[in-house]
Amino acid sequence: MSASAKLAQRIFRAEVLGMHAYAVPDARGMVKLDAMENPYALPEALRAKLAARLAEVALNRYPVPSYAELIAALRAGMEIPAAASVILGNGSDELISMLSVACAKPGAVMLAPLPGFVMYKMSAELAGCRFVGVPLTPQFQLDATAMRAAIAEHKPAVVYVAYPNNPTGTLFDAADVARLIAAAPATLFVIDEAYQPFTGKTWMGRLGEFPNLAVMRTVSKLGLAGLRLGLLAGPPELVSELDKVRPPYNVNVLTEVAAVLLLEDKAVLDEQAALLRAERETLRAELAALPGVEVFASDANFLLLRVPDAAAAFHGLRQREVLVKNVSTMHELLAGCLRVTVGTPEENRRFLDAFQQALQD
What we know:
Helix content: 40-55%
Strand content: 15-25%
Shape: globular
Number of strands: 13
Distance between the termini: 42 Å
Oligomer: single chain
Radius of gyration: 21 Å
């Protein structure tokens, strides 16, 4: 073992040493359908308008720390209630990390349904918290009975509920979720609405109904993944405490200016989301018609499907320069499953052609 390796073993926590870094595959030259991105570029006129606005940014200055203009634009674009406070993050990932750090009392627990977004568990463990996962039903629905039992047993500080869920695309029953929130007033429930543009349903309007509810959003799936901008809206008393662990100037000036401008033209992004919703159903129907393929209903901008050999299909697609996500080893409920982002009609056609060939390899 090298001297540097010995040093790493001595100074880093055992939890960190036992982890794997978040892997992002090289997608150069590929049809990229692995990361739930919006495949559509901004219209040329809007790109020109954005370029002109960005050229005026004073890069030699820090952002205004209140981000008042950006928060006002997000409030209007996402219909955030006036009574709710808003905190910004460098993507939802940073907000999840901030929650873990803020709640990391000795023995603190974070809880979420599984399979779910991997950063809930990773961020909890990096902060020294314990993570508890509650399996979904075999149909990828919320197991409300198991969730209630787990919450009663572990008394989590935070429960994450992705709405809809990643990687299954499932939109859990709202009544089940509401009953869980009402039954656990000592737990903060964070509804993660990353894929809200593709379902049209939201908990934003119910923030005043529950004092232990917060709603998390991102502009990534709306078509602005490169900006790395997320928000959490919730009761002022909770948000003000969370703000104490937010790094200063965590949203850069280019992101701030770009987001404000693009939210003024949010109709363009909404139109793109509508195109993807329609294309999702077309793609789902074509996949469902393939022998040996089980495709699940989705309220997100991706589809989960099960095939006889997920690894072989994944590699067959990659050989044909199409990149999807092999989720078959993430959780036992996902055995044999791939997740594919809904792309443009041309991208989806290329995926379908390559997929049918890969299944015959």
